[in-house]
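sanity check this:
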Amino acid sequence: MTPVVTVIIPTIHDTTVFRALDSVATQAYPGPLDVIVIYDGSRAPFPQSAFAAYPFVVHSLSLKPRQGAAIARNVGVHMAEGQYIAFLDDDDEWWPNHLAATLSALNHEEGAVFTDAELYHMEEGWHDAFRFAYHPSMLTKTSPVIPSTLVVSRTIFETVGYFDPDIPAYSDWDWVLRATRQGVPLKRLPLITANYYFSGLSTSSRPETMAPELYRFRQKHHLPPLPVASFAQMMTDPWFARWRLPH
């Protein structure tokens, strides 16, 4: 039997969430989808009629006050009905092969998989492939896992534990580091299956927000000093060049 996949979309954007949902609707994955949209204090949920055209039911709720993407994703996991969980940020989108490829890579095992992505800088007008080599030891220095590419079995997610709301900018990195330290098999699938959109308004573009969270992340995991960097900065900063893969 083809497993149910829960898709969790935290959102603060009224405009791009439908682009994300449209990309879910294009998926070649033949199994049933359980789609959850969490409005992170941005507004009241859209009426259910706004989702009527989709070939799946969209469950939605609003968190007030705004609590951050980590808590929004955690709420989505609590609501999840699927055997597998796929995360998608509201300003990103999947390619049609995303769920079919990631579920095939997992082969119905208890683990997690992530893919490469095409990174778009909306203000500077460039895009490039985000491809980084992966080895578990790398996670003490940086993370190549864009959250919108991560698919994980629900059992494994709950065993590792939920996203840490005290370090929202690094909660995804924190989760994959905890997972690998617990022996969870984390696979990189060397395919681009998503578009990641980045701008100066993104949380990860504000060092004044990220630096204190990076410090808390380092203290939690007993890590040495590390550069504050976004996925976009990883594409050009020489410090990360050792892991970046050629086209």
